[in-house]
Amino acid sequence: VAVKEAGPEVATFTVPQPVVTSYFYADNLYTTDGIGIFKAADVFQGSATGKAWLKKDVILPSEITHLVVDGEIFVLTKAGTLLTYFRGEKKSEVATSLNVAAEDLLLTNSDGASLYLFNKKSGRIYVIDKKTGTLLRTLKIGNQNPIVTAAISSDSTLYFATQDNKIWKITE
What we know:
The protein is 0% helix and 48% strand. With 172 residues, it is an all-beta fold. A four-stranded antiparallel beta sheet has the order 3-4-5-6, with no helix packed on it.
């Protein structure tokens, strides 16, 4: 389901492998099974099928937890390694020094310069530079309740909800 200006749209299709993580970008769904990355183009046109996105000899690292897309694909591992892929090839690999859990949330937008890793349990948001993989800052919310979900707008405004039914907004 995607919420668009005209309202919600629903697409149903089969992905080629069990999905570890996925990300919706520009009407395309990107998924990974931990071995490869797949792209289902134009998922709301009714005939989406997943196709391998990585070039033949490109191998993903083990223990992938997150994948986000902004034209490039960013993959984050449990050990905190951030990999960037472009046109099916690996562009960079950086150790962020963050421990990443599968339940954390990773967000970005196409115009922003940062990735945002939401640690749901600790209430911390790690701001990571997309180009260098450097941790720019850590934001700590003033609430003891875990983060439930989060979203990012095109102007990099962060919205998230906590378990106590509060909605938070952070503008950079």
